[in-house]
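so i finally got all the pieces together for this one. its three components total, 986 residues if u count the protein bits. some of the lines might not be protein, just check the labels. i wanna see the whole assembly predicted at once instead of chain by chain like last time, that was a mess tbh
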Amino acid sequence: MITRLGRDRRRAVGRMAVRRLLLAVPVLVLTSVVVFGLAAASPFDPLVGYLGDRYLTAGAAEQQQLRDTLGLDDPWYEQYLRWAGSLLSGDLGTSRSYGQPVADVLAERLPWTVLLAGTALVLAVATALMLGVWTAWRQGGVADRVVTAVAHALEGVPPFVVALAAIGIFALGLSWLPVAGLTDAGAAVSVGQVSRHLILPAGVLAVSQLPWLLLHVRQSLIAAFGEDHVVGARARGLPARTVVLRHALPTALLPFVTLVGTRLPELVTGAILVESVFSWPGVAAAVVRSAMQVDFPLLAALTLLAAVVVLLGSLLADVVYTVLDPRVAADG
Amino acid sequence: MNPGPNVDHGQAVLAAAGRTASGRGHRDAEVVLAADAVSVRLRLSGGRTVRAVNDVSFRLRRGRVLALVGESGSGKSVLASTILGLLPGNAQVRGSVTLGGAGGEPMELLRASERVLAGRVRGRRVGLVPQSAATHLTPVRTARAQLAEVVRELAMGRRRDRSREALRVEELAAEVGLAPSELDRYPHELSGGMAQRVVTALALAGDPPVVIADEPTAGLDRVLVDRTVDLLRALATGGRSVLLITHDLAAAESAADDLAVMYAGRLLEVGPVGAVLADPWHDYTRGLLGALPAGGLVPIPGQPPELTNLPEGCVFHHRCPGVCSGDVTLRWSGERAVACR
Amino acid sequence: MAEVRTKERTGDPGGVGFGGWFDAGRVWTRARGSRRRARLTARQRLFVGIAVLAGLVVYAVLVPIIAGLDERLVDLAAAGSAPSLEHPFGTDQAGRDLFVRTAAGLRVSLLIAGLCAVISTVLGVAVGAVAGAVGGWVDRIVMRLVDTVNAVPHLLLGIVIVALYRGSVVAIVASIALTHWAPVARLIRSEVLSLRQREFVDAAISGGASRRWVIRRHFLPAVIPQAVLAAVLLLPHAVWHESALSFLGLGLPPHRASLGTLLDEARESLLLGSWWTLVFPSLMLVVATLAVAACGAAWRDHVLPRRRAEEWA
């Protein structure tokens, strides 16, 4: 009976995932259209982007010829369709700011961003759970008041201020950790080097996400303490630890999973700022560089990538939710 | 406010003509749970106060079932929470509840610390079968997981013995009439009757001498009500004492030895169930009987008073067909008591 | 939030109060030694928030005027000096007084943020109201658009916009305003939908009430408090957003003081040990953000109790 139910649920989760992926398609198309539309309406001449410094030296005739070859005078939707066509065939274009194909830039830099953001997310979630349970359980105590006050204050501090403060204290003041970069200057990439350089940026990114997660865990636990099933567990004479961890926390965790999913855009935003402060060689820092130099192919690819990450993240959160909560019928 | 307990302690309280023929606890059996002049009030925002329980005293004896009967909103469930220390933060109490009998030294429950209640009383000496069973189960875990957990925490020694644990789980399931396959369901997959049996098994896991059953027959059909009544009787026969909180007078009649009629947070009539139902002394008890199918389905006119706004004197006064004596204290006459005349 | 807290059940006779009553129940936690603590009411928090904010505005507006100096004044002799009586916030690497410059930066940041919050809100209310009132395919398209704006991290979309329209203040305002309207639109749309379902509106329409009367009588009173709250709560986001863009070098040009450009400069000054270049502008940024957020939250609790508060939680 259980296995049958299990198979049904698996199938239902699969159906939900497929439906959500289909719904993501129009969102992604719309994202790229919006980016293209903005570019088309902008006063920026794409030829400048293409030629760079040679723009000023190239003659009018040469410019016009290039325009025709690149199809820059075509209506923007035709340009868009061309771009979308080559995107689907796997060609993301060439990044001018890095002087290599966009696909190569992504392949080179994406792993570092995944490492940074992944470490930060794990760190933030683990800390939020521990502190959240502790403060909820000791609600109203000194520790709770201190932690909640700090969390509320941190909500108002942008990640780049946290980053600068961390550099000022831990790198410059105490000289415990390196200021920036992936490795020390000239040093080869090694596990030891990278992990030493990872601590500050990952810590800062985690701290910038922590307040929301922590306060949410605390709040939903406190709400759960008053619910029937927790009162029921207490009435049975279970020790407090069991009641909190095995009865209050499991139900409080369900909305937390969704929250982590919806916080992904903020994680990406944080990554952009943190990577740029710490000169971390990831894709988020590439956003800033490509924007500075109006490297449109790379910028468009990165925007689309971010949208994919956000949509996949919220899908993943919903799948996890459905798997964890036996009550969800997976048709929502 | 009423000054002090209004029960004559010298008298045999709540004594009934024990149904000794069926092996039930004797009317003079030892008292396992004694409530003395218990009052509970809940402070609400805006300075209002709900006076949920007012000067309630009773004795629950070993091997007997005491039914606390009243309409919904009469403060019966608050009394259950009070005994187990599960009142919300805005509650204040007065009086005392003493837990006695075998299974431990006598203990006053209203002033006991959370630590003592959690570690030594709940589940171990007093089990609770809560109202609306399904919501009192944690939704993301199966019935078996939750039952095994209580067995492990309450009934097993320090060393974990999985086979003994599983055996005890099956045993408890059998005692309340649950099929093993039903144990593997999640709470939302249980029917009302199954959920009721699961929470009963959970309450019995620690083998408590006292069981409080809060509306165990609510929402069940006749067959299931009868099964529940049989189960409660079996508990009493096995030497446990049961406080049955219910609005179902028929179920109380077949399950209980003694009856306490509660109205607006007050006990109006107390006595052996047979005697009270055969010849009710209080007009409210008479009204309750009249509202039953056998009594002609005549409802009591009017509505119970708001617990935030209780009248002075007799709480039943405005619905009472009789001549009011203006007296609210329970007066004892033999083994019966009434709060009027 | 469960604020009710009573003494733990201890059996302590000190807990027995007048008439034999004593606290029995308690919020189920293990906090020890905590007492019922008077918390600020929503009204008091609103007052504190407004007072702090007013102080900041006075500082931002008056200091540059009173100083009578151009905040861009370069005094290389005083370059990089630590906070002193003469320069309470110290000076930057070009010798510009940071007390004056931070005030000027705060003013610019608040102005831009305020403008963005208002534009975003107006845009959101308009889009949401149309989507909710018209319904059908218009509604579906608008909701897809809302999903899209929400799917791209706001800062990233903002970066794309400022990158394509470099160096213009209009682009900065647009990049913030165009990325923050979506939640407002969603909120207003649901407000309009619930309004449409209510019977009295139906009755008014079938009773021959004019469209304008319905809007004035039912729509505006329901939407305006929400819109004001949305604008207030958007303000800290907008301050952040502007400072983040300027910090990344994509916002205001470096010589124009804003909290973001000041912090961008602090990145390098910090390496030279000038901690004050980071501390004071950040402090202003954080205090401004928290004060506005506190006002918004207090106003939400005070004015819109029970009404969709969670949507802005």
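Chain A has a mean pLDDT of 83.
The CA atoms of residues 24 and 311 of chain A lie 7 Å apart.
anyway lmk what u think
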